[in-house]
Specification:
Blueprint: H1 3-6, H2 14-26, H3 31-37, H4 41-44, E1 46-49, E2 52-55, H5 63-75, H6 78-86, E3 113-114, E4 117-118, H7 120-139, E5 152-156, H8 163-171, E6 181-185, H9 190-197, E7 205-210, H10 217-233, H11 240-244, E8 245-249, H12 252-258, E9 265-267, H13 284-290, H14 292-311, H15 318-332, E10 337-343, H16 350-359, E11 380-382, H17 394-399, E12 406-410, H18 421-438, H19 448-456, E13 465-470, H20 473-491
Parallel strand pairs: 5-6, 5-7, 7-8, 8-9, 10-11, 10-12, 12-13
Antiparallel strand pairs: 1-2, 2-13, 3-4
Helix pairs in contact: 2-5, 5-15, 7-13, 8-13, 8-16, 13-14, 14-20, 15-20
Bound molecules: 6-O-phosphono-beta-D-fructofuranose.
């Protein structure tokens, strides 16, 4: 497919114009009315797929809106772009690369061909090498320079070589080896490194230098400081480096130049974008933490979502629906941000991870053919876990003048049942979604101080939200990441802004 000639500005498409007229008709419809007019809405506007339940009924959409948005995706040729991505076509046109993070979680028997070669066996060879190494570190078979076993693992990386590993470690901590310490150094600010190692014994510490390019200033500065710290602590013998440093990279010659034995290098490929790399060898720290079997279970979750995305009709397709809703709010309602609100402490770094995923993908002001994007690019993604956010910024979401669509993530079951904690947590997520949609305290007619106080307590409602109900973290983390990365990737289909994000380019 020739992406360059296929692009027509989104705003000039027939369905876009119909959507503009439709928006004028529905923009003031209140969610209270939408629910009152259709008592089945709360059940109808849900998708239950691959162990992930999405309630999207509290969006400011009608059936007609959704029909038109799906039509827009079809008119833009989204189906063809999905197929091109999965076929391994070089849809990243500015770098002439395939965009194949989906190959990282494809099962052994799959075949995805890039430049005439099936890349799936290479992916599994690296996974097997990672598993072997992880098992040796976890069991104590891999010894440090002095013969002590490794108890501390520090991932040194930044951007996609840090945010995914940190997020996944925090999210899957429940499954991690609690006798080991995992830390993550990213910032070139020396404080980051100093604090990460201040209580650690170099003899028990392994550094994973994670960098796709192995040239990134912050990572290489931290890696050199790590080597100095290690050698200073172990008597200065350069041979110690081989026992305490491994690399994850696509750049073997830079790895060798740094002094890391390339036998201890875990590779990946130029068709993996940095921000999509947490399930490649960049996830080595995750695998050491949770073990190879759990890592593969996580990958299986990713793959299930990929298959759902590849095969499900758009109107039931979770990433497509999320992408289309993002377009609806961003480009029609002019909503500049989206709040991501996990009611799950283990997902505390998920919003930070999503920031890179979405904003590094959709931030550019030009389309596939280099012309100016005719509408707004990505909204700003941000968020905090509930219920902390409720005591911080929710007032503005409920009562402010800006429209801030919210994405809640909540789990029916907790990994840490403690008294009534989980019931209270879930009661809060239900109550927040309801209060945002339907409001609270009608505006007072009365005057005086009591009237004023009541006016200040008004929640007008009509604030949209989605709620995801995944059925467990281990497999569903991969699904959530695959879903959100794909939704963001396809958000700008047709106009897209980020050349390296492939299909969205
Ligand atoms: O800042 C841009 C970026 O290239 C990100 O896309 C990437 O995740 C990060 O820097 C780190 O790059 P590397 O893995 O090559 O060190």
């Amino acid at each position: 497919m020739n992406m360059k000639s296929a692009v027509k500005p989104l705003t000039e498409r027939q369905t876009w114009k119909v959507l503009e007229a439709h928006y004028q008709k529905v923009r003031d419809l209140h969610l209270r009315k939408l629910f009152a007019d259709d008592p089945t809405r709360g059940e109808r506007m849900t998708v239950d797929a691959v162990g992930l339940y999405l309630d999207y009924s509290k969006n400011r959409v009608t059936d007609e809106t959704l029909k038109l948005l799906v039509q827009l995706a079809e008119e833009c040729g989204l189906r063809g772009r999905i197929d091109a991505m999965f076929r391994g076509e070089k849809i990243n046109i500015t770098e002439n690369r395939a965009v194949l993070h989906v190959a990282l979680r494809a099962p052994k028997e799959a075949s995805i061909v890039v430049d005439g070669e099936n890349v799936v066996p290479q992916v599994h060879a690296v996974l097997d090498k990672m598993a072997d190494f992880s098992n040796r570190v976890r069991s104590g078979a891999w010894k440090g320079y002095t013969g002590k076993r490794i108890r501390n693992v520090i991932n040194v990386g930044i951007g996609g070589s840090d945010l995914g590993p940190v997020m996944a470690y925090e999210a899957l901590k429940h499954y991690s080896d609690r006798s080991m310490t995992f830390r993550f150094v990213s910032n070139v600010d020396g404080t980051d490194f100093a604090e990460a190692v201040h209580d650690l014994d170099p003899a028990e510490t392994l550094f994973i230098i994670s960098s796709k390019t192995f040239t990134t200033l912050e990572t290489m500065t931290n890696a050199r400081t790590a080597r100095d710290w290690l050698l200073a602590g172990l008597g200065g013998d350069e041979k110690a480096v081989a026992k305490h440093f491994v690399a994850v990279s696509t750049n073997a010659s830079e790895v060798a130049k740094f002094g890391i034995d390339t036998a201890n290098m875990f590779g990946f490929w130029d068709w993996v974008g940095g921000r999509y790399s947490m399930d490649s060898a960049i996830g080595l720290s995750t695998m050491i933490a949770i073990g190879p079997d759990n890592f593969r279970a996580m990958l299986d979750g990713f793959h299930q979502m990929d298959e759902h995305f590849r095969t499900t009709p758009f109107e039931r397709n979770l990433p497509v629906l999320m992408g289309l809703l993002a377009v609806w709010y961003n480009d029609f309602f002019g909503a500049a941000t989206v709040a991501v609100l996990p009611y799950e402490q283990y997902l505390k770094r998920f919003p930070a991870y999503l920031q890179q995923l979405t904003m590094e993908s959709n931030g550019k002001h030009v389309t596939l053919d280099g012309s100016k994007v005719p509408c707004d690019t990505s909204p700003v993604y941000w968020g905090e876990p509930g219920t902390n956010g409720q005591h911080s910024f929710y007032q503005l979401i409920h009562q402010g003048t800006r429209l801030i669509p919210c994405d809640f993530i909540a789990f029916y079951q907790t990994l840490n049942p403690l008294g009534r904690h989980h019931d209270i947590l879930l009661a809060n997520v239900f109550a927040q979604a309801e209060a945002l949609a339907f409001g609270k305290h009608r505006a007072s007619q009365g005057g005086g101080h009591a009237g004023l106080a009541r006016a200040h307590r008004v929640f007008e409602g009509n604030r949209p939200s989605n709620t995801f109900w995944p059925s467990g973290l281990l497999r569903n983390l991969g699904k959530l990441v695959a879903l959100t990365s794909t939704a963001s990737l396809h958000r700008r289909f047709g106009t897209s802004t980020r050349s390296t994000s492939g299909v969205s380019s």
